[in-house]
Amino acid sequence: MTEALRIEGVSKRYAEVQAVHPLDLSVPSASIYGLLGPNGAGKTTTIRMVMDIIKPDTGTITLLGSQDPDQRRDRIGYLPEERGIYRKMKVRDLLVYFARLRRVATAEARAHADRWIDRFDLASWADQKIESLSKGMAQKVQFIATVIHRPEAVILDEPFSGFDPVNVDLVKDILLELRQEGMTIILSTHQMETVERLCDSICLINKGQKVLDGPLERVKAERGTKAIQVEYQGTATFFRDRSLVESFDDTGRFVEMWPAAGVAPQQILEAAVREVKISRFQLMEPSLHRIFVDTVRQQGGEA
Amino acid sequence: MSKLWIVLCQEYLNRVRTRGFVIGTLLFPLLMILLMVLPAVLMNVDVEKPARYVVVDSTGVLFAPLAAALADTNEAGARLFQLEPAASGMSDPVQELTADVAADRIGGFFVLGRDLLEGNSQAAFYAKNVADEERNMRLRRTLDQLVRETRIEQSDLAPDQVREIMRPTGLHTFRVKGEGETTADEGHTFFLAYVFGFLFYFSMFAFGAMTLRTTLEEKTQRSAELMVSTVRPFQLMGGKVLGVAGVALTQMAIWFLAGALILTQGSGLPGGLSTVMAQIQQAAPSPFMIVSFFVFFILGFLLYSGIYVAVGAMVATETEAQQLQLPATMPILISFMMMFLAIRDPNGTVTTVLSLIPLFAPILMMVRITVLTPPAWQILLCVALLIASVAGSMWLSARIFRVGLLMYGKRPDLPELLKWVRYG
Fold first, then answer.
1. A3-221 has which CATH code?
2. Fewer CB within 10 Å: N-end or C-end of chain A?
3. A-contacting residues in B 163-222 (Cβ below 8 Å)
4. Which CATH number fits domain A225-285: 3.30.70, 3.30.1490, 3.30.450, 3.90.930?
5. Residues 6+ away with beta carbon under 8 Å from B91
6. Which residue in B223, B228, B230 is closest to A102 by CB distance?
7. Which residues of A touch B406 (CB under 8 A)?
8. Do the interacting molecules here have an ipTM over 0.85?
9. Keyword Disulfide bond, does the record have it (chain B) (predicted)?
């Protein structure tokens, strides 16, 4: 597994506040990486340091194998939290301009722009000025400007804010596709459902400090116990076996249980099929929301 | 293709395509021509309404010639000065006529003292408005002339003899150029120097403000963060400044070409224009002047752009920008005012020193070159100093630009600014 981004001992202090404590991160290539944290946790500061918008006080940042921001500018895309774009330019012109600035040939830039314009259903707006678009449409344009040059990595600060649910889904689909094509996607958000459905790995930061990080599965495994839900028909006793199940909550047709230590869900399923007819068997992931809130609370911060 | 070049092209095209640019390019020369022609036209038309003037002529001989001398008419053929003698038998003419003026019954009145011809009493003119110096001069000159002529008539000298004596010399001015040739010059050099100075002055106001605004827009539109992550700040700034400079140069080039075209092709223009044309034709600048103008224009433009960019990066709102714009334009204003001194005394110590200062050079050195070509070493030194300070101004403003662009909120104070410069 190669690394797209490596952050080592990076910190930033503003006059009174330590915005980011020395922070280490590692983002695997061709994955979707979520940077989570409550408001003011230091997500945007971290992202801005990665983008060389502000200089860290200490530490090194290696993005796409380079520590020199000038070497990698054309290979990354950036969607700042502070959205904004040349309002007087027309949609297509703007997209072509940004592609060309990242060294995409003009003809190719035009082709890319038209494809993305179709994808986002902006065709009838392509020759309109940005200032005449609605806020949501301007957001789409800005998202396209971030990915139009097929960067190796994109860094998206709160990419879903400002989109309606339909477009949130569209953006999600596109991000998954782009990852499929090998793009590394780093995004910050505090929308937990999004992270659970999208991210391969996460890092949770609070008050400028990393609280936990790693692949989503591992984080969940370490931080929460899985619950098992079963819908059944018949007379069931398997969940009363204390060697299998630590605790349960049965309603006669539906039972939610927490497996005993060292027991795989497979064993419980086997025990269950011997006794009853099963219409649903589900492993309940501990929700990231739960983990997030619990962890932040443990740290003494407010979620 | 270099990113700076892409930014430059974009900036240039964005600005040249606007309606404002087209209108400005067309309208400004029209406005200038209007300003030049208008006084001449107005002098013929005269905005003054015809008015009655009463003459209290105690000399008894001056009324008729005065009325004849002030016989101008307006376009409708009405006399501007309708002179009439004062009614006899007024006990206190000044007081009575003053009342008439106050009540707008008459436009004004003249009082010519009894011993005016002997030089022992005064002449006076009363009117509501005596601020029109042009009219006052005219009246003074006319009266002086009449009195002088009357005195001569009353003397033993023959009028023809007197006319011979009094004939004006009509001093002509010729300009000796470096090569030893001379050309007739009736104020054309002054005109040309003024035009060069004014063009720079005007452009810096129009386009300097544009560089400031284009920087400020990165902040107000919040595009700065995206741009800085896409191109190096210096490329962004350079592209923007040079793009605007390109717009300014395009406008200048259009004007110069149009001017050249009119000068070579435009004989037979209607009415008042032809006199102006003739004057401009006389004043046509030499190729060296035009080259110098563009060199000083470009260098001066870049120098001031650096200042404007820094200002644009420091402020957060249009209002703040306007507050800081004035101090930033001060040097141009000063050099524009100094221009008249430079025309009068182009090789004086003060002018020489001032014209070498880079902030003043674009106008003052250009004026000196136009009026009286200064020594070559001074021109070269001046250009060298200008280039050095352009580099300095760009370096400094690039640093302020880099940090200032991403700062929102309060305007930095001086220590903060120094930190930016070191940090950038």
1. 3.40.50.300
2. N
3. 217, 221-222
4. 3.30.70
5. none
6. B230
7. 53-54
8. no
9. no
